[in-house]
Amino acid sequence: MADFTNRQMEIIDESIKLIAKGGIQELTIKNIANSIGISEPAIYRHFNSKIDILLSILSFFESNAKNLFQKIHSKNISNIKKIESIFLTHCKSFAENPPLATVIFSEEMFINEKVLAEKIFSIMKLHKKEIFELIKKGQKNGEIRNDIPSEQLSFVILGTLRLTVTRWRLSNFSFDIRKEGRKMWNAIKRLIAK
Amino acid sequence: MADFTNRQMEIIDESIKLIAKGGIQELTIKNIANSIGISEPAIYRHFNSKIDILLSILSFFESNAKNLFQKIHSKNISNIKKIESIFLTHCKSFAENPPLATVIFSEEMFINEKVLAEKIFSIMKLHKKEIFELIKKGQKNGEIRNDIPSEQLSFVILGTLRLTVTRWRLSNFSFDIRKEGRKMWNAIKRLIAK
Amino acid sequence: MADFTNRQMEIIDESIKLIAKGGIQELTIKNIANSIGISEPAIYRHFNSKIDILLSILSFFESNAKNLFQKIHSKNISNIKKIESIFLTHCKSFAENPPLATVIFSEEMFINEKVLAEKIFSIMKLHKKEIFELIKKGQKNGEIRNDIPSEQLSFVILGTLRLTVTRWRLSNFSFDIRKEGRKMWNAIKRLIAK
Amino acid sequence: MADFTNRQMEIIDESIKLIAKGGIQELTIKNIANSIGISEPAIYRHFNSKIDILLSILSFFESNAKNLFQKIHSKNISNIKKIESIFLTHCKSFAENPPLATVIFSEEMFINEKVLAEKIFSIMKLHKKEIFELIKKGQKNGEIRNDIPSEQLSFVILGTLRLTVTRWRLSNFSFDIRKEGRKMWNAIKRLIAK
DNA sequence: GATGAATGAGAGTTCATTCAT
DNA sequence: TATGAATGAACTCTCATTCAT
Q1: What sign for the dihedral angle of Cα C164, C170, C175, C177?
Q2: Which terminus of chain B has a smaller tally of CB atoms within 10 A, N or C?
Q3: pLDDT per residue over D54-80, tens digit each?
């Protein structure tokens, strides 16, 4: 799934950086070409269109997330620890690659094009489903409080993660997202614990 | 504060609708002019530039929020009820004007231009401060649990509200944001209650 | 000849300043209106068109020059003194009104429109004729050398005056045009003296 | 120094013609594109901006002048002959390329943009310095009269050349600039000779 | 694989001018 | 006399994309 050549990965990488730098408006074929150091038509050797590039960015995110989820599934830890792992791993990977943070929660950028909007939507559902099921299991085995539907709990957690990242980005990455993420997670842990 | 002529309000209104329809890329002078039924240069009689229009949209939001906060302040109800009022009133006003929901939480659209980014940031701070102080008071007089810092609690609440609205929008407004908002609020209320 | 109302003179004055400030491109109806503090359509109460304004500026120059020539004619001084007077009076009036210097020798600005080009041409001829005749008289009565045709002598004088003003303007009025004018005139006087 | 591609030279050439035809206002990207027979965006493959084109026109002049000066320097003729050569060569090259005459002494066109104004200024200085030094040498070795400072003499010569060209242009190129140039030079030669 | 040259479509903006009030 | 609102035409410039080499 998502099998990119070196040049393609280079283009995807550079595109993420460009979007991070100046929003979707900064992502032009010219800018990508200049950043990489090739000509504009050369881009079209590697992607059919600009939308194709955006779609690949999203696929790249998707496959990252799937990998993460699989790794966590295989671990032998409590459900609440698994959710914590998802929460903090996200923070960590943003800390390591800030441009990613700009793009990943900026659905508005993509909703213009139907095919992109659908991809975004399916990625969101993927995350929601993951958290949702972990919560459900956690409620069943007594780790997580039972008096609030798992549906709502998952949205509280996801919403908190998203806002943390958004705050970080809008503040120009001026605080340590890992520390802040841990603070927020501690709050959530206490809120949902039995 | 934010004193617009009829034409200006018309342009602001139409602009919000355009952004809602197709993102910031749909907001062109041509589209605004066509929607209203005047020529493109005519727009410039009422706003100096496109950025000026965007800035006015944000000012419009800001002054709406300030009004809401003032109204709530003057009510003689518990702090938790005040937060509830903010939460649900936002959902209500989005239900009544869905395009608003698209624009209000789409900071990414504006971060290109410094002056817009600053405005967005100050609006976010305004909301945060409001919730934060209500929580603090609620914690002091025993309405709200004390074991979690008010800072984190306010972000949990704001994050949840934001995600609710984002989900609604990305689902193409396919569910009743008021009902969903109430559900989410009930969850939060239980989470933060003492 | 050239009988302007107060408002018209105000518009002409402001127009000269605008051209001086940023070339002919700075002379827009909007800029004129803003400088004076009236609305754009109001300008059209006083002039039929923008070209009308430019034409009036030129008429204003023309009538200034004619006045100067008349005054000098009536004086009872040598021909060479009369030329000197024209030369230095021009420098003096530029020193007193620098924007004038920018406009007066910038024929290029006006040659687009036929009616303006003709006006410019006739003003130039007026000056040429004046100097030319004074030289001729000076040659006849032995004040001025005879071995060079008066035609060429007048162009040498006019060319020198023009370049002096142009240098002053391009240097951002950084030297004293009166002193420099006198220096240049002293050179010319020696060159043409018998 | 000033190394242009074929297309760039074509654009520069066409631009000079356009300016000659109708002043700087005639120099629009559209007009350039139409004259050459390519699309407007195509222009931007060869120049970054309109100002870039104007700057290149000036560079082209500058490098022409430098070439001329170098050629003259290497000749084994009297200083007065060298000045004559500059004077008449200029007239000749204008005769061969009249549009050039319109642009080269129309500093007003360029003073809007700082970078252009500086270029113009440096070109003027280049010419001044050239004539100035030749005069100085001529005065030293007794070719040129000593009773007038070389500074003023150079401005008299340059001013005369400029006015000759200006008259020619404003008369719609209706006389033979070479003949007229020779007449003017003869007058100057006599004026400055010892 | 890559490039230089080109293009149709369209962006934001400014212009001189008109007209109803 | 003056103005607010409007407009057609034109401006510089950028976009994603194509094609011959």
Answers
A1: positive
A2: N
A3: 999 999 999 999 999 999 999 999 999
Residue A44 lies in a domain: no
pLDDT band at B2 (very low <50, low <70, confident <90, very high): low
Q: Is residue C108 part of a domain?
A: yes
Q: Which residue has the tokens 């100085």?
A: D136
- Using alpha carbons, select from C59, C158, C64 the residue that is nearest to residue C105: C158
CA gap D151, D149 in Å, rounded: 5
Is A16 part of any domain? no
Q: What is the CATH classification number for the domain harbouring C153? A: 1.10.357.10
Q: Name the pTM for this structure.
A: 0.89
Q: Is D175 a member of any domain?
A: yes
Q: How far, in Å, is the CA of D99 from the C1' of nucleotide E7?
A: 30
CA dihedral over A69, A74, A76, A79, signed as positive or negative = positive
Chains C and D touch each other (3 or more Cβ pairs < 8 A): yes
pLDDT in tens, D161-170: 999 999 998 8
Q: How many residues make up chain A in this entry?
A: 194
DSSP A1: -
Q: What is the DSSP code (8-state) at residue C51?
A: H
Strands (E) across chain C are located at none
Q: From CA B150, how far away is CA B141, in angstroms rounded?
A: 13
Domain count across chain B: 1
Is the CB atom of residue D40 positioned under 7 angstroms from any atom of strand F?
Answer: yes
- The residue assigned the tokens 């500074």 is D151
Question: Which of A23, A148, A155 minimises the CB distance to B112?
Answer: A23
Which domain covers residue C75, as residue numbers? 54-192
Mind giving me the DSSP string for A87-99? Answer: HHHHHHHHHH-HH
Query: How many Cβ pairs closer than 8 A exist between chain C and D?
Result: 109
